[in-house]
């Protein structure tokens, strides 16, 4: 194994600019890593080795002329197969798109390429980004690099697995229910979900090409990396207004406050009362609190007043029902897949837990949506955003779990997940800790904090104030320096 594949993006960029290593050498090291391990992980579904080698050669030639393309000059990246890439197949794991070749990059993908990145290929995912495991009808399922019998998460499981295994320094994902945060947690890497509408969604699926733009709320573009500094770099490059999506406001990036760990006021929740986490997750959260307090941090147990998780998840589910309704064709295949999801969510798992955000509660509204109902849901969402904004104003960040469990063994789509002897509905086990922040639009970063007794990663979610991603990442860096939780999987 070449040590190059586990250098950070910033380190690789510095080494290439300093002529310590060539872009060609860096790309070849990553292609060799992919060749050795991808057949087991299935993290990359479309490899573009020929064009990556050509781009790396051009990067070296440009550098010899004194030209620097940008902050990622010559750095290899991958991109989730939900972002359109010029001339490179983009499928979203969806059979009707198996031969789809876009003519234009998604805005976020294009901005990374414009910064000098070398695109190695596209990463595997859940079909149309609609599952917490990364399985689809086109490619083999994604396996977790820490244990191939376990899921890498979803829907961006290929992204997280690729970064964890040294296939790429950075990857782009998207997140409407935890699709960046849950795989980052499962695979032991860093992941960022920015503020709602901070990054343009132009050129992304699951809105199948030709369908109306429906996902105008709660969906975000996020990043995966092996360091928080890389997350900040990636975010800084792709954030900002876009003529292709005028709903992205021209909000400038914030300036961090510079507070030390000891100056921060940190809120902490080891679990939601309605959705207990696994014993090992709870223990890891408690250990984090102890370590940070020993380092001088001020931490207080907290949840917002009137934190009614049932109401939150039911509103979230209602919003999803509306914004997804016209994003994809109503063909027999899609309808059957959706009904299977709803049936399993409604019938599998603990009965009390099933009532939290159950799609079946809104089946009539899903089948016969109304403009009035949509506006009512939007109004309720505005009220929730205002309430969380007000509550979080008293804190610098809020620490909480990412999911109720670490990675679990592969299982049928949307089937119940066992957590310490209790069967949790699939969406609750994986989304109960992430969906509230898609609903509110607040940014959240995931950092690795521990490992289970059988060697699987455990991550923690750090939630910040809207439009304050740079501050959030700076605080996460203060916390991460104490915990030092990142390591790459063995045998890679």
UniProtKB/TrEMBL annotation:
Residues 25-473 form the Amidase domain. InterPro entries: Amidase (IPR000120), Amidase_dom (IPR023631), AS_sf (IPR036928). It comes from the Bacteria. GO terms for molecular function: catalytic activity. Belongs to the amidase family. This is Amidase. It comes from Leptolyngbya sp. NK1-12.
